[in-house]
Amino acid sequence: MKEIVHQRWIMHVDMDAFYASVEILDNPELKGKPVIVGGRSARGVVSTCSYEARKFGVHSAMPLFEARRLCPHAVYLPVRMHRYAEMSEKIMTIFRETSPLVEQLSIDEAFLDLTGMERLGGAEAIAHKVQERIQAELNLSASVGLAPNKFLAKLASDLRKPHGFVKITPEEAAALLAPMPVAKIFGIGRSAEEKLKQFGIERIGQLAAAEPEILRKVFGINAGQVKLLAQGLDDRPVVSEEEAKSVGKENTFDFDLTDFASCRDEVLDLSGQVGWRLRRNHLAGHTVTLKVKFADFHTITRSTTSDRLIAWDEEIFALAEQMLRKINVKPGVRLLGVSVSGLFRPEDEPVLGFEDNERMQKRNQAIDALKSRFGENIIKRGIVEQGKR
Ligand code: TTP
Ligand code: MG
């Protein structure tokens, strides 16, 4: 798949002291006080605490008895999960209104792909707007990172908490990373950190310049990936989960459509919307489905599966139109929908000079990652379809 090359801009948003902030929202008298959320349901540990409580050394996962020792005068509250989930949903709605490409990572954080949104004011202005909307509409504080990729964006959002806004440009990345400890790179845990130390490598800058043999000894198959991250490079796409199982769009009309031509125009429009979402998600699919709901609410769906991976508007439309031709629209159509399923990620990423068996391993890792995201069946279907070729 060829795309116009834009500078990528990925935004990472992470809410500040999330559970505690929601408690303060619901009881404004707590504002400015040390608030510690945790309790029986969380097996006697701190879930999180307000920044006032953090000054006393209290932090997530700390046993509550220890928190009580460090900060006896704090307000202790039990976890009210349903309430946090409710606010989380409102936050995610703001994200989804901002970009078609939102990847939720946890209850209080997400990636948004803001690439190519110059006509909407540019990534930086949009990112500020998201932070402002969360504050103004929900009365909650978020920290924001804006960067050319996921790795840097997540790193950035954590640099000036709470209520931080940190932008990292491609030019700034290497110098910013260089003095940071290697553990800032996700996937570098205690043991890798120790091994690197034996080679005298403690900072990301040293890691970026390290001999390939050393990296191979410590990271094996992932050496290439780690080196790229150390250089501030990361091409993982933002993948929105709800759109990933099948990417679809539907439209309900104000007046029932009764002729082929107007249905066809509608299907053309829907095909374009679906194609765009597919490509933004770096996905392609084998099956195109057309959904038709008639004036009496009777609904039918028709599907066509192709050997080819489909992601272009024209291909989606061609199959959907074929199916539409066989349907009598005279009784009146109140809704049309087009979707693509049997999703697969085309191997269009540049190969980073790995040997053959390592490439195979990489590919399998990619498939596993896909499976964990989209469910096993989709991958099975993808592989079977490929085998047919
Ligand atoms: P975090 O984003 O890690 O923490 P936070 O939002 O409370 O604070 P920060 O400003 O540093 O981002 O986690 C989000 C929520 O997840 C947090 O509010 C409570 C919950 N949580 C736990 O229940 N247990 C834990 O160990 C952690 C880390 C988080
Ligand atoms: Mg948070």
Topology, please?
Layout: E1 10-15, H1 18-26, E2 35-39, E3 45-49, H2 51-54, H3 64-70, E4 75-77, H4 81-98, E5 102-106, E6 109-113, H5 123-138, E7 142-147, H6 150-157, E8 165-167, H7 170-177, H8 190-198, H9 204-208, H10 212-219, H11 223-230, E9 247-257, H12 260-280, E10 284-294, E11 299-310, H13 313-325, E12 333-344, H14 356-374, H15 376-388
Parallel strand pairs: 2-4, 7-8
Antiparallel strand pairs: 1-6, 1-7, 2-3, 5-6, 9-12, 10-11, 10-12
This protein binds thymidine-5'-triphosphate (TTP) and magnesium ion.
How would you sum up this structure, described in words?
The chain is globular, with a radius of gyration of 25 Å. The protein has a five-stranded mixed β-sheet with strand order 5-6-1-7-8. It is built from 15 helices and twelve strands. Helix 4 runs antiparallel to helix 5 and helix 12 runs antiparallel to helix 13. It is an alpha+beta fold. It folds into three domains: 170 residues, 2-Layer Sandwich (Alpha-Beta Plaits); 58 residues, DNA polymerase, domain 1 (Orthogonal Bundle); 129 residues, 2-Layer Sandwich (Dna Ligase, domain 1), CATH 3.30.1490.
